[in-house]
Amino acid sequence: MATFAQTGNRVRPAQAGWSLAQAFRARPGLWSLLSFALLCGVWEIAGLWPISYAFPTFSETLLAFWEMVFDGSMLQAYFITLQPLVLGVLVSALLGVALGIVMGLSEKAEWLLAPVFIVLQAAPMAALVPLVTFIYGIGLTAKTLAVIMLALPVIVLNSYKAVRHVSPSLVAMCRSFQGTRMQRIFKIVIPDASPVIFAGLRLGVAAGFIGVMLAELLITPTGVGDLITYHRSIANYAHMYAAVASIIALSMLTLVGLQRFETRFLRPEKRGA
Amino acid sequence: MSQAALRQPPATEATNDAIVEVRGVSKIYGDVEALRNIELSFARGKLTTLLGPSGCGKTTLLKIIAGLVPATSGEIRVNDRVVTGPGPERAFVFQDFALMPWATVMRNVGFGLELRGVREAERKRVAQHYIDQVGLSGFENKYPHELSGGMKQRVGIARAFAVDADVLLMDEPFSAVDEQNRRKFQEDLLKLVEIEKKTFLFVTHSIEEAVYVSDRIVLLSPRPGRVSQIIDPKIDRTATPDEIRRDPGYLDTVENIWDGLRHYAE
Ligand SMILES: Nc1ncnc2c1ncn2[C@@H]1O[C@H](COP(=O)(O)OP(=O)(O)OP(=O)(O)O)[C@@H](O)[C@H]1O
Ligand SMILES: [Mg+2]
């Protein structure tokens, strides 16, 4: 986005208004930037309203954010939080997609595993997270497990449904041109299923963030969860909001990155849309 | 192609040169009897049309010949070999296009070759040739959702041509096309038949289309599908399309088939 602003300035400095309109048409991403700026503006104004002392303005929050970045507490917190999060999400994504695809392809695997994950998805996982501490204590294992418990079922079930709903006519087409079983899976089934698989991955990643936050708020006050709890306890609301906002922003960036990856590598036809 | 050329001298008159033989094929889906005891042979290098009321089993027969659906009884022989599944000497054009939405026209057309492990440069060369042949030059890098129904269908046809099969099985290939373009496609198809010297099995709902493009028409009865009549429209292909459509022989044949179908309607 920064590079674009540069080129935009370089091309037509004289006709700023006109080139801005053009810029918006050329890069729809600018609209997201605008909407983000609007959100920040509204936040700022809402924070100035004397409703609650506990609701800081956007600028106060931003300041608190930089303060925590420079004193190292933010980095420290993320170092702790990202370990179970990344580990849990990676395990859930790889295992979940693989299991889902196998379940979609094989009746036996479906028969064996589908009921398990359907029950798991229906269960209120948040209530089960504290139970994990009884078994695995309060370390990295417990937190990673909390992430997996929340992320895995939705990823598995989406991948499974995606494979089940692959276009039978594309499968017949691949067969009619003598595609092997492996070619059928990698050239037809996975690309055709990928939009739904990725929808599941996005839900799973979001659930993983919930999992790690729950773990850090309910199991062990560490990492970003601790940062939030701590600043709330000493009434440092700007800092608390900065920590909350930072984890939301990270979650959002991850989801956008995932979408980029999908359109880049699996469904290039969706790039324009 | 070279295979076919080698085989030709001994096989010319003796076997009547049937490339596809359907022997006593029946198909039962659960409690639906789709086809009953079909006996047919399709001549090499000719275009044969399957015509019949909806649900009489035309698609089923074509898919059995393609090796995509197993017959309940009977057998299919292609080039004197019993069919047990899809093979490189047969290529299918799907009624619903069956294009990969995530692949460009170029990749879709070259997909049959890609599955065979043909190298990219060669694949592109062949695909480009058939993209040009079906009149899609300039659309190589478009995705299926950027094409009209008729253009998608032509991608499917180009893909089938690209694998250089002896037999092309086409299931209602012009169904997604309006009347005006349909005529143009029929003429294009006849040109391709002329150039490619392949055997075509063609399913259509249109009697006029069948008579216009076919060397032979197989009329199927309503379910369970049986062969009810075989018609060889003797059309002079050297005439212009408009002349053909006004030709008394053409019109008589169309009328003939209408009569054949009429007693089913009653
Ligand atoms: N996979 C299937 N499972 C069960 N029944 C089927 C299946 N495919 C086809 N049938 C039945 O077999 C009969 C013949 O179907 P088919 O699709 O071959 O007809 P068709 O002649 O191609 O019809 P149309 O002209 O409408 O395309 C139909 O009654 C249909 O209901
Ligand atoms: Mg049909």
From TrEMBL, chain A:
PROSITE patterns: ABC_TM1
Compartment list: Cell membrane
Transmembrane regions listed in the UniProt entry: 30-55, 75-99, 111-138, 144-163, 196-219, 239-258
Domain of life: Bacteria
SUPFAM superfamilies, per the entry: MetI-like
Domain spans labelled ABC transmembrane type-1: 78-259
Keywords: Cell membrane, Membrane, Transmembrane, Transmembrane helix, Transport
Primary site of residence: membrane
Cited InterPro entries: MetI-like, MetI-like_sf
Gene3D superfamilies reported for this sequence: MetI-like
A Pfam family: BPD_transp_1
Keyword Transport appears in the UniProt entry: yes
The keyword Transmembrane helix is annotated on this UniProt entry: yes
Membrane topology note: Multi-pass membrane protein
Family: Belongs to the binding-protein-dependent transport system permease family.
Protein name per the record: ABC transporter permease
Species annotation: Mesorhizobium liriopis
From TrEMBL, chain B:
Keyword Nucleotide-binding: yes
Molecular function GO terms recorded: ATP binding
Domain named ABC transporter: residues: 20-247
Residue spans crossing the bilayer: none
Cross-referenced InterPro entries: AAA+_ATPase (IPR003593), ABC_transporter-like_ATP-bd (IPR003439), ABC_transporter-like_CS (IPR017871), ABC_transporter_ATP-bind (IPR050166), P-loop_NTPase (IPR027417)
PROSITE patterns, sorted: ABC_TRANSPORTER_1, ABC_TRANSPORTER_2
Pfam family, one: ABC_tran
KW ATP-binding (keyword) present: yes
Keywords from the UniProt entry: ATP-binding, Nucleotide-binding, Transport
Gene3D superfamilies (UniProt xref): P-loop containing nucleotide triphosphate hydrolases (3.40.50.300)
UniProt similarity note: Belongs to the ABC transporter superfamily.
Protein name from the UniProt record: ABC transporter ATP-binding protein
